[in-house]
Recover the amino acids of this structure.
């Protein structure tokens, strides 16, 4: 398309496509259709990757592609419009994966003139991409290879003569193809799904961006009106005005544990009697020094911390976040917040997803305690729950693939359990290869359905725990939860296409795509999308991602929860006795497929529903799988 | 009658302790308890539980002893002498 034919503001209007094999690049202009049908972010990336990736490819092959993508509101002052998304076929789940992060990288990319970057092929030698206000160069990165993510950023500040450059970088874990390697943007992680390893497989060490442009909106007066409304909402809501700014996500430790919904010792239980050592209150008192914000966000939920005592005294960190505390603390059976802070910093520096790393360690601890891993399998390490002293060394081993144990766990718990055998799969707490985040399945059936049916498996951003955890809907029943979960899927994928932050979902939702999100899109771009059209767009994107998964072999039988969740009720605490039985999960899936218009036997979207959503080409593709 | 109020994070910051014994009139409801806490601790308490634009108490859970209640449906539930009420912080995300 000629750039003059593209009619929407908000977007930069073009993508940068980089062919790593021959070191060339070209601009591609956005089209009206692509943005109207798929918005941006996750929606647009899903369409591009569905069209351009052959089914069945190895995620580490040159045929895979990695996309960095912003969304239409990113770079405006709309609250939380800071997020960068990363997209590829995941080496953990073998399907479309999206991960996003706040910070400042995404607006900088827009200011430099691009909505996104598509990497294809594989570079012969390590490279980094430099974008400077529309100037593009692929540069040699041999001197950066092997460096941790923090060091890479400092080196590039020096090399590029400015610290006003935003950098996304992989660490040694991405280079070594650890299947849950992440990408760090400043101190923010594009954490889940192993997309850092996909960049590593392409020999891309970093992307450095500097931009002095701006984001053009159609009518500044309309923008000011909606900004006034949005900031008033943020200031009025207790979650965004009081709680996130003061305690950040770690406030959830006490909240979830008090309800008995806090994963403990590899989900053997969901109540940790000594969890207060890990709580937001303890963290604030012991290590938090100040609060930090992402671009355009008034919530200040980032917590800059310094460990003040013990073996890790002096370690600095932005975090840890709730999920890190769950995985590197409670799941491993200890409550030392300083160890968690230090371990999370190692995850960031070496470039691994802290959720996956912590849960892998918890899995290994349980396997050792049950005699499924012997000392010769663990390089002589005596793994036990509660051994806080092991967490940092084990994260290092995993991220660097050191020894038998490090190499085993670097594959993720699904593949590790397949190698160990002996029934260890029972203790591998994942769906579709992705470990569960720190939110209960057994205590929240709608959210359990989100975990089971989610295209990313264990992600807490396909379904969401919020509706059941705050009492917007009752958590004691499965009634109505099929539609409930599907509508939350749509909210999530719509906001992931704008891209804005789920942590402020009380403003954006929290139970469906809402008018305010659509109005933000329209004001930023000049679109005239109705709420109904926005909900249809979200459903279209969700079905497209499902079709991607179907092409990769996913069916109803893969919409699962691990046997521990299906066979063991929560043992202690206020939610003791709560469980998701196989019958409940079956009923939930039936409800969900029925609402979605998917075939109940296979879980494949029906031709009728795909046609209603304007996905005629996908409907034709799906015929061969019916 | 005396009830015990447990809290953490922002609400603990406002009331000054994680656990306090609070004297309320017999028959006080969950909503009445919030009114009493607002009376004692002022706007600082109110800001933790109420949307300042709409004036409504936002959705969150409360434990009475070990049973869960919802602000969306249960503000009229009466408390009894000796009850322990745990106020779950109103929080999204995670």
């Amino acid at each position: 398309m000629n750039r003059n034919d593209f009619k929407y503001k908000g977007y930069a209007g073009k993508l940068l496509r980089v062919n790593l094999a021959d070191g060339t690049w070209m601009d591609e202009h956005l089209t009206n259709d692509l943005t109207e049908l798929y918005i941006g972010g996750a929606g647009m990336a899903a369409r591009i990757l569905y069209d351009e990736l052959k089914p069945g490819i190895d995620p580490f092959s040159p045929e895979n592609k990695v996309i960095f993508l912003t969304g239409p509101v990113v770079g405006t002052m709309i609250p939380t419009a800071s997020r960068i998304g990363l997209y590829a076929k995941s080496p953990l789940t073998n399907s479309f994966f999206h991960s996003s992060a706040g910070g400042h990288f995404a607006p900088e990319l827009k200011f430099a003139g691009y909505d996104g970057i598509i990497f294809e092929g594989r570079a012969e030698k390590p490279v980094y991409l430099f974008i400077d206000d529309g100037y593009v160069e692929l540069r040699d990165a041999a001197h950066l290879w092997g460096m941790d993510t923090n060091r890479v950023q400092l080196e590039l500040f020096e090399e590029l003569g400015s610290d006003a450059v935003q950098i996304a970088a992989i660490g040694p874990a991405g280079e070594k193809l650890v299947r849950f390697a992440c990408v760090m943007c400043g101190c923010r992680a594009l954490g889940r799904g192993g997309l850092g390893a996909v960049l590593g497989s392409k020999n891309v060490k970093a992307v450095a961006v500097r931009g002095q442009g701006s984001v053009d909106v159609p009518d500044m007066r309309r923008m000011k009106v909606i900004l006034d409304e949005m900031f008033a909402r943020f200031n009025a809501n207790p979650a965004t005005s009081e709680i996130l700014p003061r305690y950040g996500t770690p406030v959830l430790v006490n909240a979830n544990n008090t309800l008995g919904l806090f994963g403990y010792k590899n989900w053997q239980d969901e109540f940790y009697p000594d969890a207060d050592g890990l709580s937001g209150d303890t963290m604030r008192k012991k290590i938090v020094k100040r609060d930090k914000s992402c671009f355009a966000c008034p919530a200040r939920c980032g917590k800059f911390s310094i460990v003040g005592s013990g073996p890790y005294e002096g370690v600095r960190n932005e975090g840890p976040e709730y999920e890190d505390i769950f995985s590197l603390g409670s799941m491993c059976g200890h409550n030392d917040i300083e160890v968690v802070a230090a371990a999370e910093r190692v995850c960031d520096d070496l470039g691994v997803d802290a959720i996956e790393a912590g849960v892998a360690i918890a899995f290994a601890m349980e396997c050792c305690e049950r005699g499924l891993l012997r000392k010769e399998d663990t390089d002589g390490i005596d793994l036990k729950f509660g051994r806080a002293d092991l967490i940092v060394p084990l994260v290092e081993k995993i991220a660097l693939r050191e020894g038998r144990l490090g190499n085993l766990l670097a594959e993720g718990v699904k593949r590790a359990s397949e190698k160990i055998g002996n029934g260890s799969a029972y203790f591998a707490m994942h769906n579709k290869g992705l470990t569960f985040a720190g939110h209960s399945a057994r205590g929240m059936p709608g959210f359990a359905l989100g975990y089971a049916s989610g295209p990313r498996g264990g992600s807490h951003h396909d379904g969401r725990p919020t509706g059941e955890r705050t009492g917007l809907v009752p958590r004691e029943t499965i009634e109505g939860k099929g539609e409930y979960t599907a509508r939350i899927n749509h909210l999530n994928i719509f906001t992931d296409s704008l891209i804005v932050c789920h942590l402020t979902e009380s403003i954006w939702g929290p139970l469906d795509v809402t008018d305010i999100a659509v109005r933000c899109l329209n004001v930023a771009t000049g679109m005239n999308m109705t709420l109904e059209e926005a909900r249809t767009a979200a459903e279209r994107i969700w079905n497209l991602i499902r079709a991607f998964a179907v092409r990769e072999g996913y069916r109803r039988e893969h919409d699962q929860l691990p046997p521990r969740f299906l066979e063991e009720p929560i043992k202690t605490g206020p939610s003791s006795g709560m469980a998701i039985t196989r019958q409940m999960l079956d009923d939930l899936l039936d409800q969900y497929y029925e609402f979605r218009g998917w075939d109940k036997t296979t879980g494949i979207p029906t031709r009728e529903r795909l046609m209603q959503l304007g996905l005629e080409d996908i409907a034709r593709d799906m015929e061969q799988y019916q | 009658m005396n009830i015990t109020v447990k809290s953490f994070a922002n609400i603990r910051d406002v009331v000054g302790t994680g656990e306090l014994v609070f004297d309320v009139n017999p028959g006080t409801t969950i909503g009445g308890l919030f009114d009493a806490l607002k009376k004692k601790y002022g706007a600082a308490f109110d800001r933790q539980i109420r949307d300042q634009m709409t004036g409504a108490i936002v959705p969150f859970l409360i434990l009475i002893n070990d049973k869960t209640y919802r602000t969306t449906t249960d503000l009229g539930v009466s408390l009894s002498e000796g009850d322990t009420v745990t106020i779950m912080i109103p929080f999204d995300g995670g």
Observations:
- Chain A touches chain B through 46 residues (CB under 8 Å).
- Chain A is about 40% helix and 15% strand.
- Chain A has three domains: 3-210, 246-434, 441-623.
- The CA atoms of residues 371 and 415 of chain A lie 19 Å apart.
